[in-house]
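Submission sheet (multi-component)
Chains listed below:
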Amino acid sequence: MKESFKNHTIFFKNSPRIIGHYSLVGKKESEGNFKEYFDEVLNDDLIREKSYESAERKMLQRAIDKATISANLKYEQIDAVVLGDLLNQITSSSFSARELPSAFIGVYGACSTMAESLIIGSMLIDGSYMENVACGTCSHFSSSEKQYRFPLELGNQRPIMAQWTVTGAGVSILSKADTGIKITCATFGKVEDYGVKDANNMGAAMAPAAMSTLIAHFDNTNTIPKDYDLILTGDLGKLGSDILRDLMEKSPYKLGENYSDCGAMIYSKRQHTMQGGSGAGASASVLNSYVIKKMEKGEFKKVLFVATGALLSPLTTLQGESIPAVAHAVVLEI
Amino acid sequence: MKESFKNHTIFFKNSPRIIGHYSLVGKKESEGNFKEYFDEVLNDDLIREKSYESAERKMLQRAIDKATISANLKYEQIDAVVLGDLLNQITSSSFSARELPSAFIGVYGACSTMAESLIIGSMLIDGSYMENVACGTCSHFSSSEKQYRFPLELGNQRPIMAQWTVTGAGVSILSKADTGIKITCATFGKVEDYGVKDANNMGAAMAPAAMSTLIAHFDNTNTIPKDYDLILTGDLGKLGSDILRDLMEKSPYKLGENYSDCGAMIYSKRQHTMQGGSGAGASASVLNSYVIKKMEKGEFKKVLFVATGALLSPLTTLQGESIPAVAHAVVLEI
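Outcome: structure written.
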């Protein structure tokens, strides 16, 4: 078991509330296990844009737009947007933000971005610095393949450990309010690197980071896995979440039936995505649909959301580096 | 004049203090105007590493290391590192963080990153979430040229509006303490895009963002430029800072003699860098040397530090997009 990191967990005195949310996904994602939960499904991957990059941007803009409406707010009332994404220089985020009067806080945690943005957003509300903050991220299968792997036109074969980047976006609006799901505490992750060098096996690279954050979180909050109705990692995928289960067996915090992974769950078996979904949009779209809707219905009362990110770049892989990873955890309660 | 954004400015009740800092730069930077202020000068751009990317990473690691020592702390006492950089997927930051026991909070604001990391670090201290936080960034001329422009070996001519990416890193350690420079308030910037498409003219692209943040800041804090001993933008360069002066002439907040720009000042005229320096390391190294050292001597009592970032990517430029920009402002006082 790893040593624990006391101050990595932060507690919110004035728990921010999620007063609005929105998720939208591509067609493939809408045919998976969460089809009845997503707010919107794109008919067309390009959304009539000229490039996948501008389609990705449009998805994020739309999610911000609709989440703002769902919170009964106008753009002018969103004090800041805390956004990040996988494209170089997080341009989906910055280009979305230029359409808004809100302050822009750019973050990057790869596929852990949804959790990181929620934590920074929560600090802004808890500290009474701001009134309403939008937190979100997105990813797009085609822009990610192009940037991180190979041109789609090449028709490359996918290795068995691979995951499928989710085309999706999710945005939550945080505010000081009396009703709505509360964010009560959070644990920032430490970067872990166990020497995995295979950029097609992100699950294995990220599982140790998820373990490190989970152990720190349970230690610091005096909780155990059973205290949560759902423990949900981001996009470890099937193999990665199996590795995490194995790793946690050696800790005092064995994961039980209440543990799942957004990536492992988002596609159905018939969809042949190997280990499941990945991408910042995976956990963002699942959190802002399935998780939040189930909480609003009272089916989950306390959820531990642990988004996981592989902090590599195509260049570090070419230079023979291993893959550092990070996981940030957020507690949502009703 | 643009409308102002009330909640973009945040005030710290328990002002965090800068209890440690470190700056290091390359040889070229050490021959400029701030030569006597930098803590360390690299003899060799590669620092005996195999690639410029790993040299950049080593610079940031060293700055974190030395800043921690200057604060009389051990690594274990740094609760979090708030880092970002210009390389794809901010790998200088994430790879530096994997050497540390601290939590990793990845941020991205291009060359505004030093200010963004200071603001998020300040929130962590002000909210009593954490005890000590390291905030910093870096850039390297050769890794930036390679990623954003052309291979150095090509020997491309530099257009007259170009700036020279600073090889440098700067880190500040923030803490709850009774002595040291205080961070009293800050203004998050809104993304501005005035349609500039020339990726060799970043100063022009970023000046409107600096204006927008300055006006919001002065409005929200009821201050005027004369209230500060120094107003320092990040890396607008000579042309960009002239544009900012012009833009501010039309506002109620004309900039006077106390206004400067890190990029415009860092190199001497003899160094032929066209419009001066740029890069996240420009404002980070100048803040953590010249500015902080002058403040510690009492020569500056109140400084407004406004780091500026161009939020483009090489791909958005190729796709014909204009350049969005952001500027974040931080007030330092003794």
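Remark: Chain B touches chain A through 59 residues (CB under 8 Å).
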